[in-house]
Structure formats: C-alpha cells, structure tokens
Amino acid sequence: MSEMQNLLAIANEVKEKHANFSISEVNDHCVRLAVFTGEYDWHHHPGSDELFIVLEGELLIDFKDKETAVLKANDSLLIPKGTVHRTRSYVRTVNLCVEHKQAKTVILEESPC
Asked: Cupin type-2 domain: which residues (predicted)?
C-alpha cells in the first residue's frame, strides 16, 4: 500500500509556471498532476485516451474540429485517443491527467486550425 498524498499540498509546492509529473500508477495507467498557466502545443496521443480532472482554476481544451471545452474545479473530460487538442489556462490551474503509462505524445508543428 502506498502513502496517502494531499494533491493540493503537492500543487502548492510548485513554483514554476508549468509543471507536469507522475504522482501514481494504476495498473497500466499513469496519474499525472499538472500545475500551469499558459498553453501547451497542439498534439494527440495515437494509442491512449486521456482523462482530465480539474482540481483548481480553469482549464481550456481546444480541439481541431469542435468548440473549446471549459473545465472548472471538479469537472472532468475524456479525450479519445487520436483527438488533436491543446490545453491552455489564463489562471493558475491544477489538474489530474490519467493516461496509459506508455502513451506517446505527437506534437504538431503547425496549428491545425
């Protein structure tokens, strides 16, 4: 049995503008904690779904072919594998991300829009 973790206490220790790191593994999946302000590159994961769970702030998830999703604290959204997207935030945002441990991230060189 692993030790109990307080996610917001861990997040509050982050001083960087962008941090994303693994906090746990569940079977063949990884649970990552992200603390950031700004935007990430357009990308997709060809072999893994990605689940976002917002703990604090507001997470915007842009998609190539549909409207931007706006997630606030306690919201979650599943991004199916292969879906082109990017995350961004104008305020400090803390979220969990669950994906396959071996998930490949393919960064797009140009904006798909």
From this structure: 40-88
Selection from 34, 26, 13 nearest residue 95 by Cα: 34
Q: What is the pTM of this model?
A: 0.92
Tokens of 13: 């220790």
Three-state DSSP at 11 gives helix
Q: Are 45 and 103 in contact (CB under 8 A)?
A: yes
Secondary structure class of 40 (helix, strand, coil)? coil
Per-residue pLDDT tens over the stretch 40-78:
999 999 999 999 999 999 999 999 889 999 999 999 999
Structure tokens at 97: 């991300």
